[in-house]
Amino acid sequence: MMSQELLPVLGIGAAAMDSEIPGFIFAAVLAVGICALIEVGRRIGMRHLADEGEDATKGFNAIEGAVFALLGLILAFSFSGALTRFDARRQLVITEVNSIGTAWLRIDLLPEDVQPQMRTLFRRYLDARIEGYQRLPDVKAFQAELARASHLQSEIWALAVRSVVRSPVPGAPYLVLTSLNEMFDITTTRTESFRIHSPPVIFGMLAALALACSLFAGYDMAMRRRRNLLHSISFAVVFAVTVYVIIDIEYPRLGMVNVSDSDQVMVDLRKSME
């Protein structure tokens, strides 16, 4: 089936693809919130210690440990899931290259008078595919290239259907049309792979747990008379950076971590078509 790749690429909406700023802002706000909740927790703890003495911390460690354990679990699963989807997207690039390469070779099965035109269409099609992903995160330019590739799909398919019946090779219709179908199908698979992410509620839960743990950590710090800013800032920065990296991996091509390096195999395939 030929794909019509004119849908939004990311489940969070096209606006989120304009830059990596939303992920950075989320991490920065989270870091500030962590520092603030640590201070709030510390002041609450100092007040309770002044009123109740050491009894104020009885039974607190069990609750604190459970919440921190849950935060670690959600963080680990979020990172693992994002990395798994990242690797899957890289593999899809290779799968598409293999599909195009197979279809390119099977052009030899078509009548000789059709082969030059078909090869020209293939080169233009692959140019559109490469150019489209290189344009990200410019969504409008990306969609324009996808539309061009979709139009070329229709031309390639129509030319193949008209000419394959004249091929002198037995089984050519099946081999050629099947390879084209696979080449077109993988474009839909790649597009849909960008729509598969962790639900936004997971990131909300991560933030909520981080803030809760910060409150508990600050409460625990009330046992010390002097405020330790190094510990507070270090925890906030490390956690915020970790969350930012997870978001960066979850939404590739928008930030520092992306799958654009994998596009080189498509560029190499295009060079081999000359």
Topology:
Elements: H1 21-52, H2 60-105, H3 115-134, H4 139-164, H5 172-193, H6 200-221, H7 229-250, H8 264-272
Helix pairs in contact: 1-6, 1-7, 2-5, 2-6, 2-7, 3-4, 4-5
Tell me about this structure:
The chain has 8 helices and no strands. The chain is mainly α and 274 residues long. It has one domain. The longest helix has 46 residues, at 60-105. It is rod-shaped.
By secondary-structure content and strand pairing, the structural class works out as: mainly alpha
How many structural domains are formed by the residues?
A: 1
| Broad shape | rod-shaped
SSE topology string: HHHHHHHH
Summarize the structure in short.
The chain is mostly helical and 274 residues long. The protein has one domain. 73% of the residues lie in helices and 0% in strands.
